[in-house]
Amino acid sequence: MASPDIRVQEAAFDPGAELSAFTPLAAQAGAGAVVSFTGLVRDLAGGLSRMEIEHYPGMTEKALRKIAEEATTRWELGPVLILHRYGAMAPEEPIMMVATASPRRRAAFEAADFLMDFLKSRAPFWKKESTDAGESWVEAKPEDEDALSRWR
Amino acid sequence: MASPDIRVQEAAFDPGAELSAFTPLAAQAGAGAVVSFTGLVRDLAGGLSRMEIEHYPGMTEKALRKIAEEATTRWELGPVLILHRYGAMAPEEPIMMVATASPRRRAAFEAADFLMDFLKSRAPFWKKESTDAGESWVEAKPEDEDALSRWR
Amino acid sequence: MQILYFAWIRERIGLPKEQVRTDATTVNELVAELAAREERYALAFSDLKAIRVALDQELSDFDAPLDGVREVAFFPPMTGG
Amino acid sequence: MQILYFAWIRERIGLPKEQVRTDATTVNELVAELAAREERYALAFSDLKAIRVALDQELSDFDAPLDGVREVAFFPPMTGG
Question: What is its EC number (chains A, B) (predicted)?
Fold first, then answer.
């Protein structure tokens, strides 16, 4: 199996272009099921002017790789993609994406879900929102930490 | 909320191009989470030369629309896409795709999973595989029918 | 009444659809009528557990009444996705 | 030992990182030393439940030993994805 495609980048990306590149790799690996998750900058309170993501350069790729490897030991997976941006981004822009592929649809779904749960709470990214009212760090939700218990 | 985008077509499609078109609609609808599932023709036994999908023209779109509407009543969803091909297709080609969008990632995942479970067992499509050994209709798996009980 | 057949049921019977006059009041009665016609019908309907039925394009049951139904479709369990 | 701060901890302390000489044997001892330095450190470390620690880029605990550790990072719970 190919090693996971892990990218941590400042540049914007097109989720569709990523899925176009990913799908043939999945097919060639014998997968019949491809699941993708894309996270977008959302203007929750209204008036969001931008989102800034800080990360821990030395640790980030390592943490993502560990999460991807854990997924590949749990499920029969073809290629795995994890792509996460840092820096400044505007509302509605894609922040990150994961894609999984498997011979079985349940495995593809579960693996993508797993990657997202662990990425949320175990990969060193922090979001800061800028609105008319000022800047504030997004607080972690208790349910994000709780979600990890689904995978024990 | 926009009505679900339901397409039943013979023509090939590009899952990436679909995701590129879907993602901005999701963002504009206030969704922060986009999930896609793509099904590919898989050469299970080796030697698959083609897959043929028969469907029930009058019923198919109606059944897909009903499944999509059930999903939108269960979860807070932005746009919903269900695209399914019929006719002849080659190994590794995309057969079908669903995409969901929601403010919450769990809702986007669950809705896509739900759409797939119901599409598998409640939408009138039948697959026939052609190999060197001849043609054969793909048999429904008991676990596909069982999967529906997850959503009671 | 229009009757449609799909997948291997269509192949066994050798027809995608046909117009039928019937006094059957339920799907089960209709199936019995069809199966009594010819060997190929009997063969197609030999295992009802492997067959699904739709009445006017809605999935239904074999004991459902046929009152007012204009289109009956028989097919194997679906295998899309 | 290199110490890194991220997000609001970085902002409260006013530094992304610093080199520190310490005899602390656990993360807890190191935190106590830092908090004793100045008000801004005390403020940053006032609620340890809101802080996570990584030792040499692996998530760790506050009672973990610092033997051989070269890089300690303090940050709030992650909010990526």
Answer: 2.8.1.12
